[in-house]
Amino acid sequence: MHSYYLTTPIYYINGKPSIGHAYTTIAADILARYHRLSGKQVFFLMGTDENSQKNIEAAEALGREDVQVYLDEMAQVWKKTWEKLGITHDRFVRTTEQDHYLAVEKFWKAVQEKGDIYQGEYSGLYCKGCEAFITEADLQDSLCPHHKKAPEKIVEKNYFFRLTKYRDELLAYIASHPEFIMPSSRRNEIISYIEKFMTDVSISRASMKWGIPVPGDEEQRIYVWFDALINYLTGIGYGKDEKKFEQFWPADVHLVGKDIIKFHCALWPAMLLSAGLPLPKHIFAHGFFTIDGEKMSKSLGNVVDPIEVVESYGNDVLRYFLMREIRFGEDGDYSFARMEERYQGELANELGNLVSRVCAMTGKYLEGTVPEKVDYQAFSEFIEQYHSSIQVFEFDRALDAIWMIVRQANQFVEQQKPWVLAKEERTEELASTLYILLESLRLLAYLLLPFMPETAEKILEQLGISSTQKTSQPFFDLLVWGKLEPGTKLNPGTVLFPRRESRES
Ligand code: ME8
Q1: Which of 399, 398, 288 is nearest to 333 (CA)?
Q2: So what's the pLDDT on residue 503?
Q3: Helix axes 380-391, 395-416, angle to 10 degrees
Q4: Pairing relationship of beta strands 289-291 and 282-286 according to DSSP bridges
Q5: Is the pLDDT of residue 468 over 80?
Q6: How far is CA 157 from CA 104, 150, 276, 413, in A?
Q7: Which residue of 111, 357, 487, 504 lies most exposed, with the fewest beta carbons within 10 A?
């Protein structure tokens, strides 16, 4: 069986998850569900980045003396959010856990044995918000442009990683593997960074009291990014379960936001080359979105809590909206007005109505029973577009393909007018029209499963497809015309997207 290993970033837990964190996580969940349905053995990794100064400061600001207890509580908040959002990860790594400490130690030693760690003095700037060593050139008006704060000046003895040793090898790898960094705009950005700006990097901190100690030098703690990236190995058993590790490494894809590409596309691959491990197949960096045109920030008070959105709209609507509205890989905007529009238009009027009309007409004219099969060849190009788009992380195009089917099916209803066929007693035509529509709904439900799992399940249930029958065949076989069996009894169900109370804006 083929394996598919995918990851999200491990997030800092100095606050609650935002809709930005949910975005990457939902995209990963869609991929995980798609590849599982496709018959692959999927391993979907998530986690929390806990050895960060930000987390420690958040604990201190709350007067919490026991940092670990604070982290335990916050990790729980994050896990619960993903549970509530229906995320289907296989493992959740916390970087304060024992397995991770052991993995980091093993990795550090491998890099050290390669001769890639040396001691030196770091004298320069550090932005706690970015958890990164930065230079004067990164600043705007003497402040970090991302966090609008003055960086700390640091002079300390540190361990350094010989990142520059890998410059040529990295550039050659990127050139010969165009699919390694996606989309291509990010690839160009990284090439320019590696060529012009990349230097060796300090990978320990002498002044930190929290974090993983440097093996053999308890006075120093490992730099949080060097530690955090290794979670991608910890999660699949590096240093603990070699068999599992062999099965899943290299990762098929690391999904990240564009804010952290230097770490993922330069530092991480160089670390792996140093440790003698193969590189991930893809690193996909998506864009950032604003909220109603404004940058999302705590100081503006416009951070959207994904839990609030799903309590109002449900998980599927959030998943649909994020993936349809913001092209994966590009920047975008999250607007509540647009969400309402898509809810009423595409979800309630187009998809919801189609399902309820077709099921109601089958109830009325055919006693709720699936009629004889008929051949119909119309959707194969859309199904192809759906698969090929998901392969290249173009989720909006996959949804476009699904909506082409929704729209064609709605047009087919208008054109065939089953109510006229019934009135004129053209029973054969009526039956074949309804078979085509019901079978279209079945295909739609399967195509929707990765994106809108709850909705897809409801459609399948209404079509009388039981859950055991549902996955009795591989996904690709189920997406073939004519699998809906004549004689199946429909199960009339509830409205998929009920009318919402109009909201004051
Ligand atoms: O960087 N739009 O964690 P983090 C899109 N711990 N995506 C957004 C977003 C927005 N407005 N806001 C946040 C870290 N994100 C490190 C990662 S990995 C080894 C360590 C998402 O909590 C996006 O995925 O700051 C971004 O890369 C991530 O949250 C940053 O999360």
Answers
A1: 288
A2: 53
A3: 170
A4: unpaired
A5: no
A6: 21, 22, 27, 73
A7: 504
pLDDT digit string (tens) for 49-59?
999 999 999 99
**Ligand 1 atom having least distance to the Cα of 228:** 19
CB 332 near ligand 1, within 6 Å: no
CB-ligand 1 contact for 226 (6 Å cutoff): no
Pocket-testing residue among 6, 12, 321, ligand 1, by greatest number of atoms within 8 A of Cβ: 12
The domains of the chain are located at: 336-478
Give distance in angstroms: CA of 142 to centre of ligand 1: 24
Residues 6+ apart with CB under 8 A from 245: 233, 236, 237, 238
Q: Is the pLDDT of residue 176 over 80?
A: yes
Per residue in 10-61, pLDDT (tens digit) is 999 999 999 999 999 999 999 999 999 999 999 999 999 999 999 999 999 9
Q: What letter represents residue 261's amino acid?
A: I
Q: Is 5 helix (H, G, I), strand (E, B) or coil?
A: strand
CA of 18 to the centre of ligand 1 (A): 9
328: Cβ below 6 Å to ligand 1? no
Cβ neighbours for 226, distance < 8 A, ≥ 6 positions apart: 104, 161, 203, 267, 271
pLDDT(490) > 60: yes
CATH number of 336-478: 1.10.730.10
In this prediction the pTM is 0.96
Is the CB of 11 within 6 Å of ligand 1?
yes
In this predicted model, what pLDDT tens digit does every residue of 199-239 receive, in sequence order? 999 999 998 889 999 999 999 999 999 999 999 999 999 99
